[in-house]
Amino acid sequence: MAHWLLKTEPESYGWSDLVREGVTEWTGVRNHAAAAHLRAMAVGDRVLIYHSGAQKAVVGTAVVERGAQPDGAAPWVSVAVRAGDALARPVTLAAMKATPALADMAMLRQSRLSVSPIAPGEWDAILALA
Q1: Which pLDDT belongs to residue 57?
Q2: Pair 60, 84: CB distance under 8 Å
Q3: pLDDT band at residue 111, thresholds of 50, 70 and 90?
Q4: Could you read off the pLDDT of 32-72 as tens digits, one per residue?
């Protein structure tokens, strides 16, 4: 099982939307590196949902429900994700940057990437911060 982080603009589609729908198709990713990460996702992989924009915080978890399928013209793909649990408290970008265990986290090194892998230790560190 792998771990991932998905960024979303809460004004467009946020954690509350995912919870309300239960399962959603994660579409619209138009960056080659991010699309490659979507293609690498497998059913059962764990996901952190991160609100970009004003909040800049991890707010909940999700699970990959279905692997990659085409999203419009090649090479773009989407995956289906199921809402998991809300974090007890959001983990802010500032808190992540201040945590030594997260120093090598892909999202912190490539901040514009909307889909990124998370190492198991990074997953644990973020949940501990929550």
Answers
A1: 98
A2: yes
A3: confident
A4: 999 999 999 999 999 999 999 999 999 999 999 999 999 98
Other C-beta atoms closer than 10 Å to the C-beta of 88 total 9
Question: Taking Cα atoms as reference points, which of 99, 96, 88 lies closest to residue 5?
Answer: 96
- Residue 10: DSSP 8-state: T
DSSP three-state, residue 101: helix
Is there a contact between 125 and 119 (Cβ–Cβ < 8 Å)?
A: no
Pair 50, 59: CB distance under 8 Å: yes
DSSP state of 91: E
Reduced to 3 states (helix: H, G, I; strand: E, B; else coil), residue 1 is coil
Is 48 in contact with 3 (CB distance < 8 Å)? Answer: yes
DSSP string covering 30-90, please? --HHHHHHHHH--TT-EEEEEE-TTS-EEEEEEEEEEEEEE-SSTT-EEEEEEEEEEEEEE
